[in-house]
Design brief:
This protein is α+β, with helices and mostly antiparallel strands. It is built from nine helices and 18 strands. The chain starts with 6 loop residues before the first strand and ends with a helix. This is Secernin-3.
């Protein structure tokens, strides 16, 4: 299957306003897949505890950080998310010369969640993900069916001060530090000659396979990709259009800028069709550690027809019930072998109501326009309130324990009213 989905962005000072890091991602997945937004608090574990990921069991760490995740409802991992230390991670499917058809192992989405649960900085997340990759490998179907849709993974990881691009091919990997400006990735290898960390045998393996002669300057994308590196910058590509939009707003990139980019359909960044944008995320992370990060999620398909709702890490956050899908436990068809013999209903409350709204917007022009305007008005009012928190901090933490869920209820109220 050819690269056809997902775009991840990060912008750091001086490309942003207000000394903030802005992270954004569209998760482009099969059109019938439900994406949920869930919260898991920090937790301690006894030595020897096992952790069941999507397909395999691994060793649990002694402590996991609190995380908020946007994830396909059928699997353990996540497409994107953030943790209490304001680390944000999103992953992309990539293909290269190395076959991606391996045994069931860790999915790239499992590695996203594991990186968030176990790392308090972006650089530490690189270490966590690569150590797990080398120990357990990556593999298994990335779709809830028997299609055998598999791929390698790239990751864009940010914190309050920097970002890292991590690209993998099997167990081999390369990582590049991004300390300023902006960066976006799509579904092609993008690390070239600037490599700040790497698998110790990555170059020798490429030499052994005949992909690199050991003499020419080592270019990770050129060596490991099956496609010509120039293809990624081809006219009209999502990567190229995303980069253009970042450049156009350079020095003035805000959360609103990132949302506009994620909503752009002319570029296919906001994707429609068999693969569509099933969930979107934008995070605003002040460099000042005394200030909170604000993480916005849609939890519904098509950001143009969705509301970005805020989440802030505080103590005693309540479960995000309205965006949590039904849990089928050990009877889930994903966990039974042979897998994927059926598909249960995974629609959460917000998803069900949003389906109706999307149909109205499609079918009734005037009514749909008014509904969309009301959704944007709600979003803008919420973001104005969040700006006060970003500037002055959290004064009453208890008032934010239901922030995301309350925002969902406000969205549902708009649907009902209109």
């Amino acid at each position: 299957m050819h690269p056809s989905s997902c775009d991840t962005f990060v912008a750091l000072p001086p490309s942003t306003e207000g000394q903030r890091v802005i992270f954004g991602k569209n998760s482009d997945r099969p059109c019938d897949e439900v994406q949920e937004v869930v919260y898991y608090p920090a937790r301690d574990y006894e030595a020897g505890t096992k952790l069941e990921c999507t397909y395999i069991e691994i060793e649990q760490s002694a402590h996991t950080y609190a995380v908020v995740l946007s994830k396909p409802a059928w699997l353990w991992g996540a497409e994107m998310g953030a943790n209490e230390h304001q680390v944000c991670i999103g992953n992309e499917a990539v293909w290269g010369k190395e076959s991606a058809d391996g045994d069931e192992a860790l999915l790239g989405m499992d590695l996203v969640r594991l990186g968030l649960e176990r790392a308090d900085t972006a650089e530490k997340a690189v270490e966590v993900i690569t150590e797990l990759l080398e120990r357990y490998g990556q593999g298994g179907s990335c779709m809830e069916d028997e299609s055998g849709f598999t791929y390698h993974n790239s990751f864009l990881i940010s914190d309050r001060k920097e970002a890292w691009l991590l690209e993998t091919s099997g167990k081999y990997w390369a990582a590049e530090r991004v300390e300023a400006g902006h960066r976006n990735i799509s579904n092609e290898y993008d690390i070239t000659t600037k490599i700040d960390k790497e698998h110790p045998e990555m170059r020798e393996y490429a030499k052994h396979k005949g992909w690199w002669d050991g003499k020419a300057q080592f270019n990770f994308a050129r060596v490991y990709s099956y496609a010509t590196p120039g293809r990624i910058g081809a006219s009209g590509s999502r990567y190229c259009e995303g980069k253009k939009m970042l450049r156009k707003n350079d020095g003035h990139i805000t959360a609103e800028t990132m949302m506009d980019i994620l909503r752009d359909k002319d570029s296919d960044i906001n994707m429609e069709g068999m693969f569509l944008t099933t969930g979107s995320m934008v995070s605003v992370i002040p460099e000042d550690p005394a200030l909170p990060g604000v993480h916005y999620f849609t939890a519904t398909p098509d950001p143009e027809r969705s509301v970005f709702k805020p989440f802030i890490f505080v103590n005693n956050i309540h479960p995000l019930k309205e965006t949590t899908s039904p849990d089928y436990g050990p009877d889930d068809p994903v966990k039974r072998k042979p897998r994927f013999q059926s598909k249960p209903n995974r629609k959460h409350e917000l998803f069900v109501k949003h389906e109706v709204v999307a149909a109205i917007i499609d079918s009734y022009k005037d009514k749909g326009k008014k509904l969309t305007e009301s959704m944007r008005k709600l979003e803008k009012e919420t973001m104005t309130r969040m700006e006060e928190v970003l500037l002055h901090g959290v004064k009453e933490p208890d008032s934010l324990v239901n922030l995301f869920s309350n925002s969902v209820m406000e969205e549902l109220a708009v649907y009902t009213k209109k």
